[in-house]
Amino acid sequence: MSLGKYLGRDLLTGFVFLLIQASLIRHLVIWNLETDIVFVFFLWLATVRERTHVLVVTAVVALFADILFDTWGIRLFSATFVMLIFHSFLFDPNEQKLSSGSLFTLIFVISLVYTLIFLLLASFSGMFLMDISFFAYWIGGSVYLALTAFILYILKPE
After folding, report:
1. 3-155, what's its fold?
2. Tell me, what's the pLDDT at 15?
3. Which pTM value belongs to this model?
């Protein structure tokens, strides 16, 4: 599969998810936590595309997310880094289905790593204060992100 074959379509889909995140999902706050639907798109993309393709789309869309949400490259670094690390766990050319428990556990671990990197970089840059709520944002945000990704995976058409 060449890089250019689906690149335009995947970038456009990523921008649509970015618009949905900016206009709708940012208002679905539960206990002062919000999910990242754009990262859910990156997770899905990693299951169907090769590593280079996923990294290019992730970097471009995350850069625009940083511009839109004023996060100073934190999304770009954390999302691209996580996709680089976990792509081989998500991409399966043989398309073997994971059990629901295994799938949720994998998504939750990836969410924990992504949220931890994001929060650490945000605290380092001064956008987030390191206090007792750090763990609530880390664990709670990861659970919210993993549940969102898992529910969307369950609801996706075959």
Report:
1. Arp2/3 complex 21 kDa subunit ARPC3 (1.10.1760)
2. 95
3. 0.86
